[in-house]
TrEMBL record:
This is Iron-containing redox enzyme family protein. InterPro entries: Haem_Oase-like_multi-hlx (IPR016084). Signal peptide: none annotated. SUPFAM superfamilies: Heme oxygenase-like. Gene3D superfamilies: Heme oxygenase-like (1.20.910.10). It comes from Nocardia vermiculata. Residues 1-25 are annotated as: Disordered.
Length: 356
């Protein structure tokens, strides 16, 4: 059944995060690992035996388990004690999950230390862009755009937050340049222009729910992995080079992708708030590309040349996970299926998620 997004915006509830939704409810588990994390967050303690070593590092169970751990460092969950953010048992469990995930990304990327070559490859835009954005640009339907928004909401409603962790770990021009880019991401001093706020407006304009993590139950592992990578790199000082490489990849590849989304949304006669979010990224991120390349990466590697391989890995890991996300979504759509998880057995997938 082909379902379109509703024409009227959903009603937003303002919460403690300063954006729609406030504290999110704790999601249901998707297996043994996420069940262990959920039990600990609800006060039941850690199960005596659970196997991380054989878990799919990119699978729903491990990625949701990591996401639940990391969310304690952001807005937290409704009815979960904030003190659990630094609970020793939870941190030990999280470390095992992180090791499994990080090892897989290192295994599945090429590595190397040639930062200039890696940056040049990002700048080269293919004549016929592929991926989810290319599909939406060439033939995307409105329901597919809505699904794409739901996936991306897991990150964009906390856009740029993970990058703040690296600020005290940088010096000189690298710190100044990254803060300058982040200042734009956080609205240039105006709350209404914070990019997370603009994405909430986009969701409202599309007739979706702009509540913080509202679509977490419906979003499968590939997008959770993208967001978890940012949190992993951001929380660990030793991974500061990886976070800078990731951030540079986002800023360099954002303008052409955002430009295509602007064209897509105009073609589909989308609400102006939807267009505005991507139009903002076309203009701002084009400037950010040079700042990230010259000031942030350039100065970081002049001070710490040993981080070259880390910066390259951050770029490659970002491409790896974004490519996995694209393949997952496009394979589902090609099969005539929703790319979102079923959250209610009595209705079809898109109807469940978007309440049609």
């Amino acid at each position: 059944m082909d379902i379109s997004c509703p024409e009227e915006p959903a009603v937003r509830n303002s919460g403690a995060t300063g954006q729609a939704g406030g504290y999110a409810p704790l999601p249901r588990s998707r297996g043994e690992l996420s069940g262990a994390v959920r039990a600990l967050l609800l006060g039941a303690g850690v199960p005596a035996v659970f196997d991380v070593g054989t878990a799919d590092p990119y699978g729903d169970d491990l990625q949701l388990a990591l996401h639940m751990c990391y969310e304690l460092h952001y807005a937290g969950y409704d009815s979960v004690d904030p003190a659990l953010e630094w609970d020793p048992d939870l941190l030990r469990l999280r470390a095992r999950l992180e090791d499994r995930f990080l090892t897989a990304m290192q295994r599945d990327t090429a590595g190397g230390e040639d930062v200039g070559r890696a940056l040049d490859r990002l700048v080269r835009e293919p004549a016929h862009p592929g991926g989810t954005g290319g599909h939406l640009y060439e033939q995307g339907q409105w329901w597919q755009v809505c699904e794409y928004f739901a996936h991306r909401s897991i990150y964009h409603l906390k856009e740029a937050d993970p990058y703040a962790w690296v600020i005290p770990r940088l010096r000189g021009d690298a710190k100044a340049g990254l803060v300058a880019v982040a200042y734009d991401e956080f609205g240039g001093g105006r709350g209404a222009n914070i990019h997370a706020r603009l994405f909430a407006d986009l969701l409202d304009g599309a007739g979706l729910d702009s509540g913080y993590l509202h679509y977490l139950e419906a979003v499968p592992a590939p997008m959770l992995a993208v967001v978890n990578m940012m949190s992993l790199f951001g929380l660990h000082r030793r991974l500061r080079g990886e976070l800078v490489g990731h951030f540079a990849t986002v800023e360099i590849t954002s303008p052409p992708g955002s430009r295509r989304m602007v064209d897509t949304l105009h073609r589909l006669d989308a609400h102006p708030a939807c267009v505005r979010f991507y139009a903002e990224h076309v203009e701002a991120d084009a400037v950010h590309e040079q700042v990230m390349r010259r000031d942030v990466i350039g100065d970081l590697l002049r001070r710490e040349p040993e981080l070259a391989a880390a910066v390259v890995f951050g770029m490659q890991a970002t491409e790896l996970l974004e490519d996995r996300f694209d393949r997952f979504v496009l394979d589902r759509w090609a099969a005539g299926r929703s790319s979102l998880r079923a959250v209610n057995d009595e209705q079809e997938e898109r109807a469940r998620v978007f309440h049609f």
